[in-house]
């Protein structure tokens, strides 16, 4: 384990690991490459790898023809809006559960987790009908709220596990040092919790960005985010590989980059703190 | 008194979350249960009470048994691929090699790809029988290209979904692996345990809890696979790739039968709760307060 | 000033009464140590004084005014925690400045106090580091520095040295004692290390299950333990306690004699036994004598030059005037 490996072994492992890594991410790599090809090169047989005339035309086409910006903005509003709203509701809850635990805290947490288990499809009909009667189908408001409710348990849990790592003695020390609740929050709690809150935010933006059940079923045009935009390539547009690739690349790039930064938090967030 | 006031404040701070989630759980679920007892077509509103008729029709629908089987096959297939693949990948990534950080990024990337993108990329650019990469590959070996989504729809969807979830399993198992005490390993080595026995007697038991968590959490999500089917096969051909969520979607929003859709929804909730029960026990055990 | 009086102070957590009503007066400038076995309520009592827990009954008076309902910040006390409880995101300077900032003390005065505390505690070179970059002993000093600058009415310490290694512990013990001599501020110090208790305290409070067993100066407790519990708790190694025939001889239920008050001989004495384990420390020798018919093993402390070994036969004689007698209730007779 902690043992020195020989250079030969290391080289072998390196080759295998890189091979598998590239294989697994190949669909992404291939999509990005294809997005810079012309439609003709994109379907060339045998496939062309790197030696083609790189073009940005697909990106321009997708942007001009299909109003990509609107979908993108919807994705941004829905994912960030729902996460911020969720944080606003969850921070006080997680805070009090972590620092003022009662006999019921564990039960409340477990119950919150259990709401996450409810399959969306089980409530599709009433949610759809309810929104329709309120005129909220295909509205960002509805999606922000639903996405917030979907992710609220995860947000509470993640925050809870971060907050719980702050030793209670530090807060008591602040109290002894003369800090009132407000100062305790401003000078001690916030600086110590910001990293955890940031990770929570990141992971939940990712989850909301990629959510594709409610977004597909509750939107048509106005509030449709990128998941729905891509779904519109379903057929026969999807046969324009280069354009499909450009649209896909734009849809996944921002979240891919955020995701790389949130690897560690991902584990904690998605396992409800069971694996750290 | 100070701490009593704090307790009151605590309750006040928890209640918005609790009330919201309670509402989110009770109102739609209650309505679903109510609808499930109605003959209710969305397009021709007046609904009428039918008792358990919707359940009867849902459970005897020619699509129900295939959908149930497909759901199970999909869940179990993806679970098998991702846990076994995840353990192997985690073991590999836990070794020393050059460029660990980059390889890690390569391996986890698929998890961040939205389901509609991954489904369309696989469908068109890989599995298309004419221009897909697999078709090129088959032709290069002199074989007849396969039309994956028409002839092997469920397998194709299993592959797409497994691709998206493999990184999740890998990442969690890798995290667990890294917390394995290396002194314990060294002690076992001193005791003469070989590579395989160390894996079986130390590594696997250490990973058991993480594997349980991976299996249960994935199950929750896999029972709800929707977008991949929606954009690729639309459940077909026939019912060959229809799972329970897609069936319910079809009944409610395509055939406008809200009552039967709701009955299906209730059944989906029951199935999910059985899984949830075990997940909660696994997670709850780790929650010491 | 720093006189603290507890009147009938009691504490229950739910149904469980952790501290039955007790009275205690701590005089201004005193160094008071709370000792007792783990879980006996030392920390709880300290936290009641600090205001971090609410009392379930009784009154806490600080310098003549009722502080029972006052918030921790208002009591004018400073606390040093076992885990140090430094703010990890602030430099040492900011950590020390924090209580002054909260009290609204002006910058110049803050700087003056920080500098003088840093000098007294050897922290001058570390003022711009984060707590994470300090050793355990340095962190402890920062925590003390943060307490000093407030110029509190009293310092509260909850096992402040338990996270340090043995050598550092001795050093910090001396520093805290020196600090007390210099500041002459009331200090309340919780520990279960009885060497700390004996060496530092003006007054020791022995607690058991939330009750005060005895209050007194270290030597008072050593010489005249009020009951069997205190007798067994104060002193190291522990006092030997015998019941049965040996005790009846002295007209008591239980008798106790400290290891240092038993003399040894190879051929004559009061009790005969055989040496089980012998420990030779150079300055002293400790013998654990078995087969005496008194107790499983009798601990004896002798001069370092005394050369008995495992298995040797040995005669023991207690110093008659150092024998402690206790009655059926365990109280001193
Ligand atoms: N918040 C609490 N809720 C319930 N019981 C508590 C709480 N805090 C302490 N106790 C109980 O009160 C008793 C006294 O605890 P306390 O921490 O004062 O002991 P201690 O003497 O400081 O022990 P140690 O030497 O181990 O620190 C223990 O039995 C403990 O279990
Ligand atoms: Mg304690």
UniProtKB/TrEMBL annotation, chain A:
Tell me which positions the record assigns to the signal sequence: none
Keyword annotations from UniProtKB, A to Z: Cell membrane, Membrane, Transmembrane, Transmembrane helix, Transport
What's an example Gene Ontology biological process for this entry? transmembrane transport
Question: What cellular component terms from Gene Ontology apply here?
Answer: plasma membrane
Q: Which SUPFAM superfamilies match?
A: MetI-like (SSF161098)
Where is it predominantly found? membrane
Q: Which residues form the ABC transmembrane type-1 domain?
A: 72-262
List locations, semicolon-separated.
Answer: Cell membrane
Record's bilayer topology term: Multi-pass membrane protein
The keyword Lyase belongs to this UniProt entry's keyword annotation? no
Write down the Pfam families for this protein, in alphabetical order. Answer: BPD_transp_1
Query: Membrane spanning segments where?
Result: 12-33, 71-96, 108-129, 141-163, 184-209, 240-261
Matching InterPro entries: BP-dep_ABC_trans_perm (IPR050901), MetI-like (IPR000515), MetI-like_sf (IPR035906)
Q: Does the entry feature the keyword Transmembrane, yes or no?
A: yes
Recorded family membership: Belongs to the binding-protein-dependent transport system permease family.
Q: Which PANTHER family match?
A: INNER MEMBRANE ABC TRANSPORTER PERMEASE PROTEIN YCJP, MALTOSE TRANSPORT SYSTEM PERMEASE-RELATED
**Would you tell me the protein name for this molecule?**
Carbohydrate ABC transporter permease
Specify the taxonomic lineage.
Bacteria, Pseudomonadati, Pseudomonadota, Alphaproteobacteria, Rhodobacterales
Automatic annotation (TrEMBL), chain B:
Q: Where is this protein chiefly located?
A: membrane
Query: TM spans, by residue?
Result: 12-37, 63-93, 105-122, 154-177, 211-231, 258-280
Q: How does it sit in the membrane?
A: Multi-pass membrane protein
Tell me yes or no: is Oxidoreductase among this UniProt entry's keywords: no
- Which Gene Ontology BP annotations are present? transmembrane transport
Provide a GO CC annotation, any one: plasma membrane
Keyword Transmembrane helix among record annotations: yes
**InterPro entries from the entry?**
ABC_transporter_permease (IPR051393), MetI-like (IPR000515), MetI-like_sf (IPR035906)
Keywords, A to Z, come to: Cell membrane, Membrane, Transmembrane, Transmembrane helix, Transport
The ABC transmembrane type-1 domain sits at 68-279
Cellular compartment(s)? Cell membrane
Q: Which family does it belong to?
A: Belongs to the binding-protein-dependent transport system permease family.
PANTHER family assigned:
ABC TRANSPORTER PERMEASE PROTEIN
Write the protein's name.
Sugar ABC transporter permease
UniProtKB/TrEMBL annotation, chain C:
Write down the InterPro entries for this protein, in alphabetical order: AAA+_ATPase, ABC_transporter-like_ATP-bd, ABC_transporter-like_CS, ABC_transpr_MalK-like, ABC_transpr_MalK/UgpC-like, Mo/tungstate-bd_C_term_dom, NA-bd_OB-fold, P-loop_NTPase
CDD domains for this protein: ABC_MalK_N (cd03301)
- Protein name, UniProt field: ABC transporter ATP-binding protein
Annotated Gene Ontology cellular components are: ATP-binding cassette (ABC) transporter complex, substrate-binding subunit-containing; maltose transport complex
Q: Which Pfam families match?
A: ABC_tran (PF00005), TOBE_2 (PF08402)
Task: Give the classification, highest ranks.
Answer: Bacteria, Pseudomonadati, Pseudomonadota, Alphaproteobacteria, Rhodobacterales
ABC transporter domain residues are 4-234
Mind telling me which PROSITE patterns this protein's record contains? ABC_TRANSPORTER_1, ABC_TRANSPORTER_2
Q: Give the protein family.
A: Belongs to the ABC transporter superfamily.
Q: Which UniProt keywords apply?
A: ATP-binding, Nucleotide-binding, Transport
The answer to whether the entry has keyword Nucleotide-binding is yes
Spell out where the chain crosses the membrane.
none
Can you provide one Gene Ontology molecular function annotated for this UniProt record? ATP binding
Q: What organism is this sequence from?
A: Paracoccus alkanivorans
